[in-house]
Design a protein that fits this description.
An eight-stranded antiparallel beta sheet has the order 6-5-4-3-2-1-12-13. A five-stranded antiparallel beta sheet has the order 7-8-9-10-11, with no helix packed on it. It has a four-stranded antiparallel beta sheet with strand order 17-16-19-20, with no helix packed on it. It has two helices and 20 strands. It is mainly β. 6% of the residues lie in helices and 50% in strands.
């Protein structure tokens, strides 16, 4: 009896740990809100929002691809990897959720979704699980660009990878599934295209140095009488809020872990400025 009991206990504590079942990204009821932003020659700042959906399927030589609208991409998903159909039966990888720490992923510049004119590499610095959009999901974190890939959702830079340059970029603002909305990058709504011309012409604040490595200073053009600053992580979680006492804000490296963040500056409860910054 004792031998049997010992065997059962040993069997229980040595049983293999089953990994969580993969959450697919290309599900018909998923939709994404993506903002594309850019600076015009006159210094104005434009934002254009898109609702991205899976609009249908195409059968190409027996392989089923999902139609990603409004970009016209043809994607399929297999074993945690998102493939894009190019032509003549060729494919390339858009996102690979099987990456581990130390892996390097090369982004190709001419993906149907991206307008980037260069190649660049993403280096995986961390892989972990987090509770996002109602489920525990695998999260892949990269260096340099501060980009995250979230299982079942995609990239925080706007579904698929999309690095920013000084004049333009794109980012994920929301993910919708089963009538539930999750906001990212500090967004509070999915459609930001309605921003007025005057709003777009507000001067953009400069954070120096950026990325934050010790102490960086954010210079406001004026002191706000009822000003506060809020800090968010890329999943939209509010980290902290401070009252503004002058037209300079100091962001300290010791207050934040390495990663990408977003700040919002409000006056009287209305957002006046918002932008992302990187902490190393």
């Amino acid at each position: 009896m004792r031998i049997l009991l010992f065997f059962l206990i040993t069997l229980y504590f040595n049983k293999p740990v089953l990994s969580q079942e993969y959450i697919p990204m290309l599900q018909q009821d998923n939709s994404w809100g993506v903002d594309f932003w850019g600076s015009n020659f006159n210094g104005s700042f434009n934002v254009q929002s898109f609702k991205v959906i899976i609009s249908g399927e195409q059968d190409i030589e027996g392989v089923i691809y999902k139609e990603i609208s409004p970009f016209g991409c043809l994607w399929r998903e297999e074993n945690g990897i998102i493939y894009e159909f190019v032509e003549d039966g060729e494919e390339r990888i858009v996102i690979d959720f099987t990456l581990e720490v130390g892996d390097v992923f090369e982004i190709e510049y001419d993906l149907c979704y991206s307008y980037r004119s260069f190649y660049y590499d993403l280096v995986v610095t961390a892989v972990y699980e987090d509770f996002i959009a109602g489920e525990v999901r695998k999260v892949i974190e990269f260096s340099d660009y501060g980009e995250l890939w979230i299982e079942g959702i995609g990239s925080t830079e706007g579904i698929a990878p999309g690095a920013e340059d000084p004049d333009s970029g794109n980012y994920l603002v929301c993910f919708e599934k089963n009538n539930e909305t999750t906001f990212f990058n500090g967004a509070t709504m999915c459609n930001n295209t309605f921003l007025s011309i005057e709003e777009n012409r507000k001067p953009q604040l400069k954070l120096f140095p950026n990325p934050v490595t010790y102490i960086s200073t954010l210079q406001l053009p004026e002191t706000l009488s009822n000003g506060i600053i809020r800090y968010y992580n890329v999943t939209g979680k509010l980290l902290k809020e401070e009252v503004l006492l002058s037209n300079e804000v100091q962001i300290k490296r010791n207050d934040l872990n390495a990663g990408i963040y977003l700040y919002q500056i409000l006056n009287g409860g209305i957002v006046q400025y918002a932008n992302k910054f990187l902490v190393k």
